[in-house]
Amino acid sequence: MRMFLLTAGLLIGLSPMCMAGQVYKWVDAQGVTHFDAQPPQGAEATTVIKSASPPAKPQALPSGKAIGDQKAIDQQVKKQVAEQEAQLKEFCEQARTNLAQLQNNPRVREDVEGEMRRLTDEQRRQRIDETRKQIEEHCQ
Question: What residue spans define the domains of the chain?
């Protein structure tokens, strides 16, 4: 019984593929697009669905050189990802250090055009908020 159901299912599933034929598409004088199994007489039509063709021959496996090239590309991508992760880790460590200094030190100074200036409380709170936002966005 199981074999009968399997065979029937395959026949039903594959039957539309066997019946597929050419379908033509054309536009009439009024600008209406038509689809039909036969091309129109006296008008130009394009083929939309071609007849079913036998399956293509299996292609040869890629050469060893192509596989080697892919491995080299994979290694290069892995190296780039590792570098980006290292840069992100360094950024996160620096941002956390800056946040700790801003929170723990009310007298933060910055170098502006060669002059050391002290940040006001409002500027300090703004920098704390910006740093927290950057940590939330980029660090886990």
Answer: 20-51, 64-138
Tens-place pLDDT, residues 7-50: 766 666 655 555 556 777 778 888 888 777 777 887 777 776 55
SS3 of the chain: the string is: CHHHHHHHHHHHHHHHHHHCCCEEEEECCCCCEEEECCCCCCCCCEEEECCCCCCCCCCCCCCHHHHHHHHHHHHHHHHHHHHHHHHHHHHHHHHHHHHHHHHHCCCCEEEECCEEEECCHHHHHHHHHHHHHHHHHHCC
Half-sphere exposure of 118 (CA within 13 A, CB side): 5
pTM over 0.70: no
- CA dist 105 and 99 (Å) reads 10
Q: State the Cα–Cα distance between residues 117 and 110, nearest whole angstrom.
A: 5
